[in-house]
Amino acid sequence: MNALFRRKSFDALGQMDPANRLRATLSWPHLIALGVGAIVGTGIYTLIGVGAGLAGPGVILSIAGAVCVCAALAYAEMATMIPAAGSAYTYTYTVLGEGLAWIVGWSLILEYTVVCSAVAVGWSGHVAEFLPFVPGALLAGPGAGGIINLPSMLISFLVAGFLIVGTKESATVNVVLVILKIVALTAFVVIAGGHFQPAHFHPFMPFGFSGQGADGSKIGVMAAASIIFFAFYGFGTISTAAEETKNPGRDLTIGILGSMILCIVIYMAVAAAAIGAVPVASFAASSAPLVFILDSLHSPLAARLVAGAAVVALPTVILAFMYGQSRIFFVMARDGLLPRSLAKVSARTGTPVTMTAITALIAAAIAGFLPLGQIAALANAGTLCAFIAVAVCMMVLRIREPGRTRVFRAPVWWLVGPLGVLGCLYLFSSLPSLTIGLFFLWNGLGVVLYLLFARRSSLLARTP
User: Fold this and answer.
1) CATH topology of domain 26-462
2) Angle, to 10 degrees, between the axis of helix 167-193 and the axis of helix 315-334?
3) Residues 237-280: tens digit of each pLDDT
4) Within 10 A of 407 (CB to CB), how many other CB atoms are there?
5) Which residues, 6+ apart, have CB-to-CB distance to 348 below 8 Å?
6) Which helix (H) or strand (E) holds 309?
7) Extents of the domains making up the chain
């Protein structure tokens, strides 16, 4: 039982074998681009349609990001206090103990890997516009009427190869692609805004705040929020880069909060422009709703440009989350909870090559055979678990160690923390029942693995 509660020491976080240490090469512009690249992606290019189908125009409330703002404040405080790789997993290990840290890490593995897959599927939906010569059976998985989603698998491997080349090189190119993505979305808002019709916002919440469809599925604003939430949690990826940041005390705060604020503005603008231009019912089922809307407005050139920007820029989301996932895998291996042989970095590039390759293989397999909606919802469950853990860690440390140095202090922590936890719990309860069941099944498997392997192989178990 004691194994469940053993904790990492704050002082030991910076003491590790150089062969297992990640190289610090990033600054705050890289971190903001990493956050924006992760957040502004599949959620805005594809899931706005899914969310609108569940909530109607009320989807704007679903993507306000209020829960994520609370989580971002908690992340900023914890990341600057514990500038080590591992994000919520490392914070939980240091504050709450190994047992809960394993569950959070296991949930993060679910989140990051599944996000990579979901974004790859969304990217495939856009690239199909440019591949009329490819048979439809190779552009969708079995659940979507095809045999295999080949483009989604190929982009997963391509991004992984790029990450293996080097962190700074990948981050620099990511900055350029993020700028391209923002320009394309700005063009969409300008064009769609010219066709704005207030009547499209009535009724604002046709399915209410929380309801049930004829088939028993969850509908309404909160059901949409539990899916669209997928669009907002990319800022957590920034915290996985703490160990590779040159000035973590300053740069992590700027990166986490700056990307969160910028992305809320972008999402609200795009959603309002989309709904104002075209009735929700007409684009809710589209796999590429922004392109569909521009086509409906007889702007084929703009539609092709937005689709083209998605093809080029959506891989930035895969890059950000695959980067984060490989670091979570890496740190868990470094702590002995996964095989220690996997916790190696390349002497030439300073990147965890093996873990990046493993992440790509898993993500590609999921993307090739599962549909987007199921993938996105499952990723949300893992994220909500991590957000709850970070908020709890922040509150526990405020009480247990009030005098510890904090580079960034979350305002009114006694309100932000509980709101973050309660908001995440409510969003979790709004997820589809199948998703909740699969999440607990995944963590049940994780608990078995912990008891059989990780509990004994942990470095803390070997420390006298």
Assistant:
1) Amino acid/polyamine transporter I (1.20.1740)
2) 140
3) 888 888 888 888 889 889 888 888 887 788 888 888 988 888 88
4) 15
5) none
6) helix 300-313
7) 26-462
